[in-house]
Amino acid sequence: MILSPLLGRLVGKIALAAPGGRSVRPWLHRLRGVVIGSNVWISQFVYIDELHPSDVTIGDNCTIGLRTSIFTHFYWGRRKPKSNGKVVIENDVFIGPHCVILPNVRIGEGAVVRAGTVVSRNVPPHTFWGSPSAEALGVATVPLTPEHSYEEFVDGLKIRLKRRTNCLGTKPTESR
Q: Where are the chain's structural domains?
């Protein structure tokens, strides 16, 4: 049974905060048309596309982290008959909190998506996927507060030049 678009949107809003990450939330999203396998955990405040939920597939044994958003469309206005693309999350995938998954993405079996990642292309199976770690960009000698202007902050900013690294993220060794 798939609900009407309006009722599906309402059920989607209820699923955001409903209890039961392994039971109630997956069941509510299934009612909306999302294809969800067994033993799936959907954390609270997970947004799954409200206009085209049937274009989202989540495999078995997956975890979808807190406040993750999964989109299958990018357009304004009235509902169109087709989405911009399907999202397929294969079996045994872990998606960390605060991720954004865009249309036309397949996340391969056994992949782990790092918290806060924007997934805009396919993720290979058994891959730890995400953007590089945050790092110091410079030294702020003047705080950016109401007591100081933006110009004072910029004038006091000492930018750190990043050293080149090789493809493994380590400093290159000297050749002899």
A: 5-129
